[in-house]
Each structure stands twice: as C-alpha cells, then as structure tokens.
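A common beginner's mistake is to predict each chain separately and then try to dock the pieces by hand. The better habit, illustrated here, is to supply every component at once so that their relative placement is modeled jointly.
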Amino acid sequence: MYQRILAAVNEFTNSEAAARYAIALARSCGASLSLVYVAGEKVDREAFGRAEKALERLFVEAGGQDVDVSSFTERGDPFEKIRDIVRKSRIDIVFAATRKEDVEKRFFLRTLGRKFMVSLPCAVSIVRVVRMGRIGPRNILVPIRGHMSRIEERAYFVSKLAEVFGSKVTLFHLIEPITRYFHGEVSLSPSQREERVPKDMARFAQCLHIYKIHHEEKTRYGKSAREITIEAAHRRNDLIVMGASERSILRSFISGNPVETVLRETPCDLIILRPKRS
Amino acid sequence: MKIQNLSAEDVYQALLTSAQGLSEAEAKRRLEEYGPNRIQEVKKKPFILRLVAHFTHFLAVLLWFAASLCFLSEYLNPGEGMRTLGFAITAVICINALFTFLQEYRTEKALETLRKLLPFTVRVLREGKEREIRAEEVVPGDVLFLSEGDKIPADARLIESADVKVNNAPLTGESEPVSRNHMPFDGDLIESTNIVFAGTTVISGSGKAVAFATGMTTEFGRIAHLTSAVESGLSPLQKEIVRTTRIIAAVAGVVGVFFFSLGFVIGRHFWDNFVFAIGITVALIPEGMLPTMTLALAMGSQRMAKRKALIKTLTSVETLGAVTVICTDKTGTLTQNVMSVRALWFDGALVNATGVSRSSAHHIFRIAGLCNNARFVDGTYRGDSTDVALLEFSRKVIGEVDVERIKEIPFDSERKRMTTVHRAKAPSFPQGETIVAYSKGALESILPLCDRIEIGRNRLPLTASVKERIAAASESLMDRGLRVLAFAYRDIECLSDDASIETDMIFIGLIGLEDPPRPEVHEAVRKCKQAGIRVIMITGDSSRTALAIAREIGLLEGRPVIVEGPAFERMNDRELRSKLAEREVLFARMTPKHKMRVVSLLQEEGEIVAVTGDGVNDAPALKKADIGIAMGIKGTDVAKEASDIVLLDDNFATIVTAIEEGRAVFENIKKFLTYIFASNIPEAVPYLAYIVLKIPLPLTIIQILAVDLGTDMLPALALGAESPTPDVMERPPRKMSERLLNMRLMARSYLFLGPIEAIAGMFGFFYVLYGGGWIWGSYVPAHDALYLQATTACLAAIVITQIGNMFACRSEHESVFRRGVFSNPLIFVAIFVALFLQLFIVYHPLGNKIFGTAPLDLDVWLVLAPFGVLLLLAEELRKALTRRFR
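With all components supplied together, the output reads:
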C-alpha cells in the first residue's frame, strides 16, 4: 500500500524524531524513503546547517536499517515544493512533524500541517512528538469513531507500525451517553453499550487480524475527546494514532474539534493520519 | 529505540545532545519547541462561563423573562409595584444561581501541591559548563547533575552514577529508597533501573542524567494530567437538582402560559392577566429550595466534620448516602498500621512470639535487629512500622547488638528484599571477627538466593522437600493474617558486587507480623453489609494475608474471587467486569495505579463508588471516584486535595458513619421538599380563585416571596437537620432511578398538605373581608386597609399551617409523637424565627411597606391557629393509615 514514503525534515528536533516513524514504516512496508528538507526563503545559515545535519543523521539511520533511502534539500515554499515532489514521485504517504503553530492555532487554520492535510493527494501523517527519547511505542491507542473512511488503509498503517515496533494495539471507542431533558443521563446496560459500538470497530479489528496484530478492544462511556487523552495517560500508551478531523471549520467552532483537543493535550506521541484521497 | 536499553553514547545521539550538554541556543530552541518543564492544568471551561451557566438555564431564562416583563410593565403602567417585583425576581435568580454555583464550585489545588514536588532550580551542563537554571527551563537533551537531596526535575536517563538511591514514593507509593545505576536495562521504561523520574528525590549518591521528557509528558505529568483531566461528573444530587428544576420550570412555564392564554380568551384586562400569569409562575417555583438545600448540605458537612470526616465538596454529603461500593485500602484503614511479631518458624518448627524466651540466641533475632533501618532513640522506636516491630522484638529477645554496618543493598518493591553487610566485633558475634551479609524480604525473593538451611547448629541442603516445608509454614502464617518475612545470611570473605553478595545464602527462618484490624471495623463492615454496600479490599499485601484479615473482620465469608496485581494487568475489561460482578472479590498485590481502572469499571456498571487513597499516585482514582476519600493522617497533600472527603482518623468506620449521615441527608432533603412544595398550593390557589371567582387577589406576589424566601427558610433548614431514622442503615442504597421529586412526594404535598393550607389561607382572607363588610362581587381598591388586612390574613394562615406542616414533615410514616416532639431543638428555634419574621411583616411599618400588609387583630390569629393543629392531626391520621396498610 505504501511503496514510496516522504518525510519532511526541518531544523527542529521534533521533525527528526517524527521522521524516525517514517523510517520505521518504510522498513516495515519495504518502501523507499525520501528525506526532504525544503528551506524557506528566510531560513538562516545556522538553521539550514542544522536541518542538513538532521538529514545526514536520518539518512545514516535509515540506511543502517536497510531502508532504500534518498535525501535531498530544496529551496522555496515548503508546501509547494513538497506537493510537486509528491506528484512527480508518486509518493504514497507524507510524514511531517507538527509545528508550534499547529498546536497553538485554532483548528490549525493557515498552518502547514493543515495545508498538507487539505491539499496533498497522498496520505498524510502529521506527527506530534512529545517524548523525543521514547520512540518505539510499546502500546498504540487507536480511537475509532463511526463512519470512518478507508478503514483498510488506516488498519494497514497501524499494523505496519505495530509490527515494526512489536507494539500492542488498543482499539478505543467512546460511547456517548444518552440524555433526555427531564430524565437526564440514561444509564445503559452493558449489552446496550455493546449495541452502540460502531461496526467500523469490528472491521478495523478484522483488518488487524489479517496482519496478525494482537489487539484489544475497549469502550468507554463519555463524550469528550479528553477521554482519549485520559485513556492514553491511564494505560500508559506510547502512541495515539487517530484519524484527521473531517469536521468543517464551522462545525468545529460550534461543537469543538476532538483532534484539536487531543493534539493539544496528548500525554504521548500522536500521529494524525489522513488516508489517501479516494 | 528505547532510551533505557541504550548505551550512554547512544542516549546522547538519540536525544541529539552530547557529553558537553546542549548549547544555550539549542536549549532555547527546544524550550520553544517542547514548552516549559511545568505541570499545567488541562484547559477547562472558564470560571466565568461556569458561573454564567447558572444564570442561563431554562428556569433562570423563564425568570429573566418574567422580570423583564415586570420592568416593562412598570415602564408602560407605572405605580403598580411591578418594579419591586422585577427586582425581587432578579434577586431570586441571583440567589439560586449563586447557591447552586457554591455547591458545585471547588478550587483545584491538587495540581498546586503536585507542582511543589518539582524543584525550583537545577544544575545542568550546558556548553560543557555547569550552570544553575530554573527547573522550568529544562529541556529534552539537557544533562542534569544529581546529588543527595535533589528533587528531580524531568524524566531522565542516568549516564553516570555513584550509589544513587531515589525515593519514588510520588510515583509508586513505595517509601523505601530504590537503587539506580547507569547500565542499559532491557525491560519496561517504568521499571528501568537507569531511569529517574520527575517529582522524585535523590536520597543518596550522585550522578548525571539526560532529560528525555519534560513537563506534562513525564510520568509525573501523566499523574498530573489524570488528576486535572479526570472529572467524576455531576453527583447524584446535582443530577436530581437539574431534573427537579427542569420539571418545575416546565410546569410553572406551561401553567403560566396556559392561564395567561385562558385569561386572554375570556377577555380579562391585559395587566390583570399579566399579574396573574407572573403570580402563578412565581407561586409554583419554590424559590427557597436551592438556598435551603445548600445550607442543609453545609450543616450536614459540619455534622460529619464532628465525626471526623472533613467534607470538601458540599454535594459529597449526599453522594455518600448513595454509595454502593467502597474500594478500601487495608493497611491503616481497616487495620491499625501497628505491626508486631506474632509467630516465627525456625529450626523447622512454628513458635508463637510469646513462646520465645529471652535466652534464645538464634540467628533470626540478630538478622531481624541488624538488617533493619528502624532506630531506638530516646526511648522510642522510629522508622517503618515493619522494621520497628522487628527491632523491638529483637531487642526484647537478645538485647542491643552493637555491630558495624558496612554496606546496605536497600529494599525496593521490585526486588522485595534488603540486605545489609556487617563487620562483627568479637565476642558479641558468634563467628568472631568476620563479615556477614544479612537478608530479609518476601519468601519468593529470599528463597532463590539460598542453597542451605540452618536447623539447630546444622547447615543442611535446601532440598525440594525442605522448600515445600518452608512454603507450607509460610502459608500457615499467612492464613493467620500475618505478613511473612523470610531471613537468610552468609559469611563473606571479600566484598564484591551486590549480586554476588546475595548468593549462596543460608536460609534461617520466617517471621510473621501482625497488623491487627481496628476494633471498630468489624461492626462497620457488618453495617455496610446490612446497608447493601459492597466493600472491596484493594491491598498490596499477599492474597493469603489479605484474605485472613478480610475473614477476621467479616468482610469475606464464602470463597471469594481473588485477583492479584500481575493477573489484573493481563485481564481485559470484559474479564475484569466478570470478576467484579462476583459477590465477594479481593484485590491483592495491587498498586495505587490499578485503582482507577477498578473505579472506572464499577462506575460503568452503574455503581456509586467511594475509594480510599493516600499517595500522590492515588490522586487520579480519588478524582475519578464518585467519592474520593483521602487519609488525613498518613495521606499526602496531593491526595487530600484531589479527594472529596478527608478522614481525620484514617479509619474505615468513619466512612460508614459518614455514609449514615449522607443517607439521612437525602431523607431530610425529601422532608423539606415536601414542606416547601406544600406551601406552593396555598400560594397558587389564590391566583386561581382570583381569575375563576373574580375576587380581589388574596395573596400578592411579594407575599409569596416572603413565605418562600423568608418564613419557610429556617423551618426547612431545621428539617434538614433531622437525625437519621433508626433503620437508615438497614436499607439498601437508594436506587439511582429513585427520584428526589417523585409522585408520592408531590401527591402528599400538592394533594394533601397543600390543599389544607389553601383552605386555611382562603378562609383567613374571606374571614377578614367579610368581617370588614365586604360583599361578594364588590370592588376593593389595592391600597384599601381592609384588602391589605385580608391578604395579610391569607399570608398568616399559610405561615401558621406551615408550622403544623413542619412537624408533619419530620417523618413520612412514623408518628411525630413517637419520634419525639422535642428531639430536634432546631424546630423550635425555626418556629420562633418564623413567627418573629411574620410579626415583623404584620406589625412593623417597614414590613407593612415592603410586603403590602396591615396589622391583624387578635381574633384573626385565634381563628387561624386551629388550622395548624388540624393539618398536623390530619397528617397523623394519614400516617396511621399508611402504616396500617403498608
């Protein structure tokens, strides 16, 4: 599914840490890896040097893991350049680290991460590295919501990461409580709760099963995206892999954006995956 | 790439740093990138929005609408007193909002206390130079200097170490120091011997470490995240209040709109119609309910404080009464946390501690006294309770032994043993001048180190059959509820590394220590069972010891399901749910981190859970539970701040006492709701009579408020202070489907008590009107003295019948005369105050002015007084009938 992977690298350490996930995925998929640094017009010499060194280190690391790796540096607008490379080289998935602006700006408006998510034709995974010394997740938390698109690709992505790191996978679904005006919250029996688990959970599990990935299914009662970070903190998950938000700006403004909440408060590394556009 | 199993060089490489540390510029960039090394609260709804929400719910919006109409009416039609009414309704909204907010509001101090566990400044290596910086400026990749007494600022990997011991209590709850070194470790990060964690302290030694996680991404930050993010949600009472106010708002709104429309249809004047609609709405809203409830909860918390349960959130008072499961620690809560040696196994035989003579010079007493960190100073023993018990026993049997200690391999929760190395001074030592290693610890930790056993003076091989005998002896001690420690020793020719010290040891014996149950716990557990409350013990002790104690205190009787920590971690939620569904379940060898999962699963099954805790890492579970109970004596500040209740005596029995009080609070809330709702009928009937019978309005809106927010308040509070009924702990916990405002309560208030009061009110009104020469159908001006007196008589009748109602509401079925008329002195204080207030309203010019009243003659009082008695007698008759037919 992923034969050509691109990792966008810059002068910041978290991009280097994020690229290590790309190396791991490339190794797991037997894919080729392109490490790319696009220096913006205003980048100073020192930052340029740091990014180049990062490329070097990553190149050596990927090579050391028998990954078919190439690295190159470009000058120009990072988004434009990477979009061109994706088109020309028919890249299957792009890895990029979150920047400070992704975490700070509401709904990632006008951020590079959002531009990648919205405009690149290939799959995109935005990585937020919060523990730079702890890459190699022991257990991965995968929040599952109803009506997910491209489940097979998502499951493949998770499986390949789990395979290369030897991680356990937990599929996690939040069951929203039912409330009635005069009755308040209606408590559901375990069987009623089971009924409210989306079928996508079973489909995702089936896919993992195909890749022989050991997994656990968990449901929690709650409606806030914060439950995801609580679960991750409580169960000491090392990585969360969640789908990119499909909410519009307006809907995000009215009813909030779970991805944004998790991105801000994640207690462990986070990968936001937007599968390839169909 | 796992930080714990890398070499020092690889650690530098992985974290993009070097042995010279980071450069200042790089550190600054990383600070931008990863943020400050700080414990931060998760983003929550701002204080002001939470406050505003109490002014904008449905009931409040309804009242705002009414108040606005009043002000509009005053503007369009001045001089009708609508402005005063508008202000009064606004005041009602504010009072209710503030009192509800007061119930909910709680300052979050748990994170503040967590922050105090981090250092203020740290020493780091930057650009090859040692620098002191603020702990907030530490970034991943910083090389930290660690020495004795330092608080550790971030999660870090040791790269150099010299006898480093750290206290991991904030993370693990284990107070014993653990050794740390810089060697690569092939295992989980959390168990790594080369990792030091933020929030912990260096007890001894020194070293260098590279920070790999800072701020909220550290293990300590994980606890902070859980403590800050976890919310237990609305308490059962808060849910009931929301439900009740929604029902009331809907009923009042619908009735108001219906009668306004009806008046419009039958062609009443707009302003008369408007006054009526507002009046009936205000009459149906029990304005005093929320303030009374808040004050009743505050009084309940005062009573609990006197019984050594300090309440931190008001609604917890009632939540306690709804508790269905208590998850409790064992040591110190169910037991006294006073250890003493009870039995021993040595020389192949079990002996009771009382049977050990002073002359016995067996090695086991020497090891117990020397492999021990307790001290006997100024006539008192100091140290860990287990060590104190062993030292005390050892001194009692063999007296003081003066032997030099030259090394210690400290206890830690993973190794479950400690070893000390001594140089003996002849002749106090049997072997003469020599070096000896002494070990004590869990049997499963000590036995594998031994290859021989000493029985009498003989050293015999440790065969499988001997091991079986030792295991059997250990089990028999544990079955007596004793905590069992194994002891071993060896002679050492030359000191080498720790691992070789703890080999080829000679097994000496076992000592069983008892931590006796608190004397009052047995009765408390019995009460819980009678009250349908499950008690689940969650302990770090072995299952046999825990089971024996549980049986001794009557907690477990049959064949309980026992879940031990390692199995617990392997179980998925479904399996664990099925274990929790068993009638009797016991959790042994658990750590505090497991508690939150137990609490969550129980809550998902609809249980109302109380959980006890004392450590920093108990904080998330304390926050998650419906009632978090912290220990006042041995609890950490973080646990106390995260809890809803602090037990001032750490005693399980106090929880049960508090539950008893909590149940009484729910009963009492129902009592005063019956009382408050009853007065809504005599307040509403005058409006119906006004529109249906076309008579002057018998009770003004401001007079309704005088009852709801004035004369009714203290009597309602007095009902809130009723003592628990004798059978309060003989009933199962109330079902969550049981409504505060149920049909029975409403029928009693609205269809029985209320109508009697309404008759009294209307009688008083007509008595004065007819006495003044009024003729049916004639007009009486609003400021006419006769009209003012008539409305005052209606008001007085309500107040008088409410006094009778107060006695009536003291119980639902039991006769007030059996309960004891004088058993609640507050009732009489309330009557006195209500009457005093009524006299002020009736006779004081200011009262007359505010409430539109006029002084009444004595005959009016005398005519009205029997209605109070009548109501009480009618209620006694109802109670007698219900008792008979129940």
